[in-house]
Amino acid sequence: MHLRTLALALAGIAAGSAAFATEPARFSRFTYEGRSQERVTVGPNQHRNPILSGYYPDPSITRVGDDYYLVLSSFAHFPGLPIFRSKDLVNWTQIGNAIDRPEQLDFTGMRTSQAVFAPDISYHNGTFYIVNTCVECGGNFVITAKDPAGPWSKPIWLPFEGIDPSIYWEGDRAYIVNNRAPNEEPRYNGHRAIWIQEYDWRNGKMVGESTQLVNGGVDISKKPVWIEGPHIFRKDGWYYMTAAEGGTSVNHSQVVLRSKNLRGPFVPYAGNPILTQRDLDPARPNPITSAGHAKLVQTQNGEWFATFLAVRPYEGDFYNIGRETFLLPVTWKDGWPIILPKGQTIPFASTKPKLPAQAPGPVPTSGDFGYVDEFDGNKLAMQWVGVRTPKQPFYRVEGGELVLERGTPMGDLSGVPAFVGRRQQHHVATASTTMRFTPGADGERAGLAAMQSDENYLFFGLTQLQGKPVVALYTSDKGQERLVASAPVSAKDPLTLTIRADGGKMAFDYEAAGGKKTLASDLDARFLSTKVATGFVGTLIGPYAWTK
User: What is the DSSP letter of 204?
Assistant: First the structure.
């Protein structure tokens, strides 16, 4: 064949393929309504716990003047490391994501509960610092910003192993304290240690010797596990170190030690732990469990408070919404801080700080609330996240619609799915969207996904089976996807999808030209729980599409 003829033929094939390519899925709005299972009465001088509902774990707090800032873990979700600001420690507004550019960190191949673990935020001499660990994607690093809303710098990588670094500032010097391996052969599984080393913040490097401060935990003879999340502060001539102990599940706790010297020896408080719920009756009503990973902050009025993570199971140890951020006052007894006396349950309503009241932000974070995203403007709100670092854009926002382009299938670690989600923030919640999509081949799909991990998720939406469009519900547990239910539907009309969650159950409604119908109800959704899926995140719900 003549070369020119061949070129024209290939061009014709390409044009034909483009003509038959599936059009992108379009979503016109997203609506969320949620309420808590527990009924709480909040008094005039009280606030509601948690202060950040849903998957917002490992809170690190700092105060700059009369402003407070929180940064949270986000693992392999992108953008990551959400940052919040408050004036009263109760009402919080997200102002940015510290990891919001693909060139900062590469999450390629990361599972949802890998990548960025517990961050720490601090401030010195006009600059904000976040020190963090990218697990299996580079190790420990520091990023900086003049404005906590961003932009944040590219990482400065730090040459030590372990997780959960934090910065202690003393005058013009900085010290990094973190969880590392002990200076001996580990005696048991979970045997870790806390180390300190000076950080040259002007040149971005570690200097001097590393010193082990804590070996194992409060009492190594009892084989304490996973001493981590350390923070150091100074008060009344003492260096105090608080750290989590017991692992971030039902045995979680917070402990405190102190020393007259920064490099020890640190002596544990005889009344440790200063926060835990592990000794309480697991059958108590509306339990809050797994409390720990706290950081203390002193207000400009001299009060002390602690932010920490905990969870609210809907039954047993089942929770789908992840680990959340709570706030409690700190009392001092005989020179030791106490977040919660032993035997007491974490209150859903607690004493407010004596700070000027602040109005709730534009997007609520606590209590019963809802919101609507009309996809107006030309970019998504900062609360939307995807999975892993995108190498190229897979969505666009235009004309009041979210348009999803091609991505990898959900669960494929080699790429990024065309999925953006927002946190399920209540056990009792409703999420809905209206979409338009015409599948071009069997298996192509677009709709809502609820994702706990790459292996544990569900899809509810429009697909094609045996050449016919249907609305379908698929679930995946440990990577095994199955079709739960399907029903014929026209692909020519807009389709409204609604997921209703109630604890460990879910129901699925759809509405098209033929009216509103329920595709499935009473689905056992415990496969979306942390207990079943494992990991450290919470369920995200949002639009998803996949085309061949």
Answer: T
CB atoms within 10 A of CB 467: 8
Q: How far apart are CA 450 and CA 425, in angstroms?
A: 13
Residue 55 has, within 13 A of its CA and on its CB side, a CA count of 32
Q: How far apart are CA 16 and CA 407, in angstroms?
A: 22
Q: Dihedral (C-alpha) 437, 441, 447, 449: value to the nearest 10 degrees?
A: -160
362-373 CB burial, b ≥16 within 10 A, e <16:
eebbbbebeeeb
Per-residue tokens: 109: 């191949």
Q: How far apart are CA 101 and CA 218, in angstroms?
A: 40
Residue 544 CA to residue 385 CA, distance in Å, equals 12
DSSP letter (8 states) at residue 527: G
Burial of 529 (0-12, 13-18, 19+ CB in 10 A): buried
The CA distance from 82 to 224, in Å, is: 31
Token look-up 């009263």 returns 88
* Cα distance between residue 36 and residue 458, in whole Å: 22
pLDDT at 268 (0 to 100): 98
Helix (H, G, I), strand (E, B) or coil at 538: coil
Q: Quote the radius of gyration of the chain (alpha carbons, Å).
A: 25
Report phi then psi at 37, rounded to 5. Answer: -70, -35
Structure tokens at 387: 């999975």
Q: How far is CA 367 from the centre of its chain?
A: 18
Q: Taking Cα atoms as reference points, which of 476, 514, 481, 519 lies closest to residue 497?
A: 519
Question: Does residue 2 register a pLDDT over 80?
Answer: no
Active-site residue list: 58, 228
185-224 residue pLDDT tens: 999 999 999 999 999 999 999 999 999 999 999 999 999 9
The whole-number average pLDDT for the span 21-31 is 93
The residue count of the chain comes to: 548
